[in-house]
Each structure stands twice: as C-alpha cells, then as structure tokens.
Amino acid sequence: MTTGTAATRVLGVLAIITTAWVVVSAFFLTPADVVQGDSVRIMYAHVPTAWIAYLAFVTTAVASGFSLVRKHRTLGFDRVAGASAEVGVLFMAMTLITGSLWGRITWGTFWQWDPRLTTTLFLFVTYVGYLAIRRVDVDPVRRARRSSVIALLAVLEIPLVHFSVVLWRSLHQEASVLNTDGDVRLDGLMLFTLFSGVVAFTLMFVWLVMHRQRLTALSDLERVVGLDAAISARRAEGVSGIHAT
Amino acid sequence: MNTVLAIARKDLTIEWRTRTLLARVVPFALLVLVLFAVALDSEPLILRAAAGLVWLAMLFATMLLVQRSFDLETADSALDALLGFVSSSSKVFFGKALSLFVQLFSLAVVLVCAAVVLYGARVEGGGVVLLVTVLLTATVGLALVGTLYGVVVANMNGRDSLLPLLALPVLAPLLIGATRATEAAFGSDTIDVSNGWAWAALLAVYAVVFGSAGAAAFAPLAQGDS
After folding, report:
1. 3-state secondary structure at position B9
2. What is the largest CA-CA distance in chain B?
3. Closest CA of chain B from A172, distance in Å
C-alpha cells in the first residue's frame, strides 16, 4: 500500500527541483555579504525553515479548531493537525540549529536571551509536548479531542509568553546584539534565492503533511483491522479446538 | 457556587486526613530551596535570585500537587461519577482549582518565610501589599493552569513526565511575572515597586485568561475518559 498519489508525486518532483536550485544559487551564484561574508548563506535555509515552522503551527491550530467544531470530520482534521505539528517541530529544530550556527559566527555566541529567540524556544518545547500527548492515546477519537484542546491552548499561550518575555528583557537588559540583523543588504538574486527557499520548503511541507496524514489514517485503520483479525483468529482457534476433541 | 465549594472541601478534607502537602510537598519545596542555596554557593547571588528560586520551587511543588489531586479522581473512575452529579463540568474545574489554590497559597507563604530566614530577603513598607497581591494572583494562575493540564493528562500512561512537559512552558509567563513582582517586593535594585505592580496586573490577566480557557476546555477533556 502506498501513500503517494499523482498530486504528491508532482509536488515531490517540484520540491526537489526548487530545492536543487536553492542549493546551487545559495552556494555558488549569490555573492557573499559585505558585513557577514559567507555566513549569510545560512540565511537561505534559516529563514524558510522558520517560515515553514510558523505555517505548520498555524495549520495545526486551524485544523484543531475544525476538528473540535466539525463533529463528523473530526479525525481527518486531527490527522492534518498532527502531521503538520510533526513537520513543524522538525523545521523549528532546523531553525534553531541554523540560527545558533549563524549566531556563533556573527555574534560569537550560540544563544542570546532575546525575546524572539526565547519565544521560539518555548514554541518548540510546547509542540514537542503536543506530539508527546498524541503518542499516548491509542483511541483516535480521544486523541483528536485531547490534542485539539492542547493545540488551541498553545495558541493562547504563545502571545502571553512572547509578551512577558519582551517585557522581561526590556526591563532587564541593555541593547541587544541583534542590531547586526538589519545590516544585510539583499540584492535581486539574494532575494530571489531566499524566496525560492520559501517556495521549496513550502512544497516540501505540503508533500510531507499529505504523506504523514495518510500514514496516520492507515495506522489507525490497521489497529482496527488488526483487532478484528485477532478476534476472528481466536474464534477460529476455538472452533477448531472443539472439532479436534 | 455551592457545588464548587463542596468539591473544594472534599479535596481539602482528603488532604487534611492524608497530610500529603504537610508531610511531603512542603518538605520537598524547602529542600529545593536549600539545594539551590548549596548549588549557587554565594550569599549575594542567592539574595539576588531569591524570588526566582521561590517561584521555581512553587512550580515544582505544583506538579506534585496536581498529580495528587487527579490521582484521587481517576482511581475507581471517581471523576466520571463526579461529572455525573454536577450540572456543569466547569464547576468541577473551579472546585478542584480552588482546593489547589488553598494548598498552593499556604505553601507560598511558607516558602516566602523560608526565603526571609534562609536567603535573607527583606519585605518592608509598600512591599508587603505588593507581595500579598502577587502571592494571591500568581497562585490563582498556578492552580488554574495546574488543574487544566492535570485533567489533560489524567488517566494517561506516563502522566508524571507529561504534566511538566506540557504545563511548564505554559507557566513560563507566570514564572517571569511572579519572579519580577516578588523581586520588587523584596526591594531589589533592578526593579522598583511600581513596575512590580505592572507585573502583578499581568498575573491577574493571566489568571483570567486561563480561568476562562479552563472552564471552556474542561468539558471536552473530561468526557469519556473512562
């Protein structure tokens, strides 16, 4: 059994082509930055991964909302929410890794307790928790209800975290090192490469989510079918046991 | 309202008879404060960190009390029976939160006294009013969020590790706010009392937000948990 269809195959090929173009352009065609030198090339991966992670978490929140409201389509929306969160956590991890590598080169340190970074870290941990909850419930209906509520609570939590962290840093610390951030001057090709990166990763995101949610559907189905098969196997055993005696 | 009080009184009676808070959670939280002092190993540093350490210990203790509060309910499916008796499930939510609040508030008072004795923290003048306000608003928030995530993980395998993973990121704004405001009440030089009041206001907003969210989310979470 496959989770691929014509649509995912087209998406997959397009994702590979655009990604290949981004790699070639980011490493060979675009110039190094005047201030940051070659380290600016990290940006072509860093910015799109951050964008995809946010897109994924918005998708999860919207799908979770629908999952709670639309009673008869609960499981479908829940599978999309779960698949999207999984891909989101992956991309957010890449955002954090590429970001701290860039920070080490540019700022001389892997991490800064700046509001945006701190909020991102909390966002990451929150969705790791969301995925942990999804793994526990065996019953799909209960999993859908619980994880939808968690995803919606996360929507409530993130602005509060961000607001309090901004307030915390502003009351506490002098100028942040983030000033170098605005120094990047993007020429046409750099901007185009960055934009291609966003397109490539968005295609990859859609492709991954489609496969992942079909995989979840299949494993939910397998659990049901597997249980039925096990019951009828035991029944058959019982019947043949009676005949043997 | 009577239902809310009855549920809270039930939980507090159980607590009074088993003395979990007194015999285990209070000693644990005090131990955390002592261990922090040993780990930091510098008196000016400890005094500077006093407010944050008190609230970190409160967060850890909340995890224990929430587990305890819902282990009582999930044993023998007591929660389902309880939900069958009340007219609205949000009453169960507020009842459990109220009993948790009473326990957490008494713990917070003990821990602040411990910070005064062990860490040399000082509270004077207007700081007292601010401190009491912060203790009230922050423990209300702790109790509400704790109850909400307590019911999320109730009945789950591995809930002991899931609860902190889910609840602690959500409690981060509360930790920041309560720490800053308590620092202001302790007379720190990095933050003044008026800023402390701003943080206390944020804590109140936090409690209202999670109070309403919890009341709304409790029903879909608690149903069909058997």
Report:
1. helix
2. 55
3. 7
Domain span at residue A136? 7-176+196-216
**Residue B81 in contact with partner chain A when CB distance is under 8 A:** no
| pTM score of the predicted model | 0.85
CB contact residues (below 8 A), chain B span 196-225, against chain A:
199, 202, 206, 209-210, 213, 217, 220-221, 223-225
Domain-embedded: residue A231: no
- Residue A79: CA count within 13 A, CB half-sphere: 19
Q: Give the pLDDT of residue B147.
A: 93
| Interface ipTM | 0.84
State the CB neighbour count (10 A cutoff) for residue B61.
Answer: 24
Which of B48, B89, B157, B176 should be substituted to probe chain A, the one whose Cβ sees the most A Cβ atoms within 10 Å?
Answer: B176
Number of domains in chain A: 1
CB of B84 less than 8 A from some CB of A: no
As a whole number of angstroms, the distance between CA B30 and CA A143 comes to 38
Task: Return d(Cα A115, Cα A126) in angstroms, integer.
Answer: 16
CB contact under 8 A, B209 and A163: no
Q: Which two tokens stand for residue B74?
A: 């999930």
How far apart, in whole angstroms, are the C-alpha atoms of residue A145 and residue A152?
11
- Please indicate, yes or no, if residue A62 is contained in any of the structural domains: yes
Residue A61 has pLDDT above 80, yes or no: yes
pLDDT, tens digit (0-9, with 9 covering 90-100), for A68-103: 888 777 788 999 999 999 999 999 999 999 989 988
Query: How far is the C-alpha of A217 from the C-alpha of A79, rounded, in Å?
Result: 7
Let me know if residue A185 belongs to a domain. Answer: no
